[in-house]
Design goal:
Layout (H helix, E strand, L loop, with lengths): L3 H9 L1 E5 L13 H4 L4 H4 L13 H10 L4 E7 L26 H12 L2 E7 L7 H4 L1 H17 L6 E5 L11 H11 L4 E5 L15 E5 L14 E6 L17 H13 L3 E6 L9 H23 L1 E7 L4 E4 L5 E6 L3 E2 L12 E6 L9 E2 L8 E4 L4 E6 L2 E2 L6 E6 L3
Parallel strand pairs: 1-2, 1-8, 2-3, 3-4, 4-5, 6-7, 7-8, 12-17
Antiparallel strand pairs: 9-10, 9-13, 10-11, 11-18, 13-16, 14-18, 15-16
The structure holds alpha-D-glucopyranose.
The site of alpha-D-glucopyranose has 9 residues, from loops.
Length: about 400
């Protein structure tokens, strides 16, 4: 049995991650303090130039909305220790004390509410700024607890807490029962997520955790034991989470679309990252890529939100998902453009696509993008299903094409 919040999280399917902090002004990623061993007194000066003048929460959130994302995860505080929210006196190393003079988390939450996007909070547990993190861990844990308490009590209903950093002290007692217990008390519907990092993908780190993370790596379909746990892949658009001025290594729309589909094949969500620039502007490439995802989601989003794995597999990467109403969505990869062979460079114009694991008697199958009805053959007893996967109409190439078998 899936708990309600976990079910709702899976149904959101696609989220936008936002890494933004003082580091964004340097433009060399969110680890630059550590990477360049910048003395904290030096690094701290970034606060005096942080105006956030280009940060328009509304623009960012409506971009996520256009992409078909249903939730967002914002770095309310990253390892550098600076908070984008008003810590209400816990520390003056926060956005309201900077020239920005605003509670940026509040702006984010408000914009999310307006757009119908569910706001989640990323929060670091590792802190390079607070001396107590190194010198008095119990005092640090109190500070962390009270910080999270602010987030749980001052911003209305939130979608979840996304923690990151416990891997920095693997043997420490992080007093998670106390921290997670507090979240359950104030925000019973909030997801609790704890990033287990690059080396430990898909691990359940605590019984209260509701979704496991796959950082920069393809999720695998998990065998569930005990409590059902969701999964989520987080992915950078280039090779940095925080803004990387000199990082040109952007993924293509093709790769992002394929990855989203393959996440769903494994029953996982995709959390795709944007790293705004120093004062909050969105890099053009990230914006363009996000909008491309949106064009694809406009056509096939229904399959992504509603479809769940149910043992339907095709050839190569092809696969099927089943919706709650019994509809079946067949995802077909590597399809080309049908058209004159002198001009269309696609791989294969059209082909037969065969799937195993479909036992329902099929009446009709159609492409979701243009509604075209497709011919098929079936052996329901054997669960074999083959249909004529026609190529894209000249003028189109959607990377992955989805056909729907409506439930009768
Ligand atoms: C890591 C990094 C961090 C990033 C996160 C996103 O654990 O430390 O900088 O925020 O992964 O998944």
């Amino acid at each position: 049995m899936k708990e309600k919040r976990i079910e709702a999280f899976e149904e959101m399917a696609f989220g936008i991650f936002v890494h933004w902090g003082l580091y964004s002004q340097i433009g060399r990623g969110e680890w630059i303090l550590h990477q360049d061993q910048i003395p904290i007194e030096e690094y701290k000066k970034l606060m005096s130039t942080f105006t956030a003048e280009d940060f328009k929460a509304e623009t960012l959130v409506s971009l996520a909305k256009k992409a078909g994302a249903r939730y967002m995860v914002l770095t309310t505080r990253h390892h550098e220790g600076f908070s984008l929210y008003d810590t209400r006196g816990l520390s003056d190393y926060d956005a309201p004390h900077s020239p920005a003079g605003r509670d940026l988390v509040e702006e984010y939450v408000r914009a999310c509410r307006r757009e119908g996007i569910v706001p989640l909070f990323y929060h670091t547990t590792l802190d390079w700024y607070q001396p107590s993190f190194r010198e008095d861990f119990d005092a640090y844990l109190d500070y962390l607890y009270r910080s999270v308490e602010v987030l749980c009590t001052q911003y209305g209903k939130i979608g979840g807490l996304w923690f990151d950093g416990n891997w920095s002290k693997p043997d420490a007692d992080w007093k998670l029962d106390r921290l997670y217990g507090m979240i359950r008390r104030y925000q019973p519907d909030a997801m609790i997520i704890n990033n287990t990092g690059l080396d430990d993908r898909g691990r359940v780190s605590h019984p209260e955790v509701d979704s496991v993370t796959f950082e920069q790596g393809m999720p695998v379909l998990r065998e569930q034991q005990g409590k059902y746990v969701a999964s989520e892949m987080c992915l950078t658009m280039n090779d940095h989470w925080g803004y990387g001025k000199g990082d040109l290594h952007y993924k293509s729309p093709e790769e992002c679309i394929r990855t989203l589909c393959l996440c769903r094949k494994a029953g996982a969500n995709l959390l795709l990252n944007i790293g705004p620039m120093g004062q909050g502007a969105i890099p053009k490439m990230s914006e363009a890529l996000t909008l491309c995802m949106g064009e694809w989601m406009d056509l096939f989003g229904e399959a992504v939100y509603h479809g769940r794995p149910a043992g339907i597999l095709g050839e190569g990467e092809d696969f099927g998902l089943i919706g709650q109403d019994g509809s079946i969505y067949l995802f077909v990869f590597n399809l080309g453009i049908s058209g004159n062979s002198h001009v269309t460079v696609g791989k294969r114009g059209s082909r037969l696509a065969t799937f195993q694991g479909i036992h329902q008697k099929v009446k009709k199958i159609r492409w979701m993008d243009n509604g075209q009805e497709l011919s098929f053959m079936q052996d329901a007893e054997q669960g074999m299903f083959t249909f004529h996967a026609t190529g894209f109409d000249y003028g189109h190439q959607y990377v992955v094409r989805v056909a729907k078998i409506s439930a009768e």
